[in-house]
Design a protein that fits this description.
Keywords: Amino-acid biosynthesis, Aromatic amino acid biosynthesis, Isomerase, Tryptophan biosynthesis. The protein has 207 residues and is of the alpha/beta class. The protein contains five helices and ten strands; from the N terminus they run βαβαβαβαββββββα.
């Protein structure tokens, strides 16, 4: 199972996380986010990361030109579109030569069939909890809802994951291809608890 750690922005914290070898490391480029990476990270810092760690830029309803400029500046390998982007916008991002992760906000009214429109223009889906913010709300959604997901498209499970509830991931159906963690492993917004992440990596990778 892939592990994606999102909301990184402090240099020492980024380097410490890199030692754990996550599959993906996420940097938020949404100016209203309290985990905004722009102004805190540099291209040189991201260039230090091992090639095995895919650098992900997280955007919310951003213009393709903005996404392209950021991908080029930081040499990102993937983008996560976390707003109300259309399939066409996802296809435009895909043409930039990066992986595309389309996030969906899930509650008990979410219609999983709507994801079918995005199958051809994305690499992964990401299911997060619908809340006040575009991600990082720290609240899990009812995983039983995923039984309504019938697409073969691989997905990341997100939304309030922590050391306690990840113990029950083996009960989730269909099985997620990866997990995306953020606020459940923070000391403060943008600063991750490395000790807790070590425990998470041990739990996930020992299975």
């Amino acid at each position: 199972m892939k592990i994606k750690v999102c909301g990184m922005r402090q240099a020492d914290n980024i380097r410490q996380l890199a030692e754990l070898q996550p599959d993906y490391m996420g940097f938020i480029f949404y100016e209203k986010s309290k985990r905004l990476a722009e102004g805190h990270i540099t291209p040189e810092l991201l260039a230090e990361l091992p090639a095995s760690i895919k650098k992900v830029g997280v955007f919310v309803n951003a213009a393709t030109t903005e996404i392209q400029a950021t991908v080029t500046k930081y040499k990102l390998e993937a983008v996560q579109l976390h707003g109300s982007e259309t399939p066409r916008q996802c296809a435009e991002a895909k043409e930039l030569g990066v992986e595309v992760i389309k996030a969906f906000s899930v509650d008990d009214r979410f219609v999983f069939e709507n994801t079918l429109l995005y199958e051809s223009c994305t690499d992964y889906f990401l299911f997060d909890t619908k809340g006040k913010e575009y991600g990082g709300n720290g609240i899990p959604f009812d995983w039983e809802l995923l039984k309504n997901y019938f697409s073969p498209k691989p997905y990341f499970l997100s939304g309030g994951l922590n050391l306690e509830n990840v113990k029950h991931l083996d009960k989730v159906r269909p099985k997620p291809d990866g997990i995306d963690v953020n606020s459940g492993f923070e000391q403060e917004p943008g600063l991750k608890n490395i000790a807790d992440l070590k425990e998470l990596f041990s739990q996930i990778r020992s299975k």
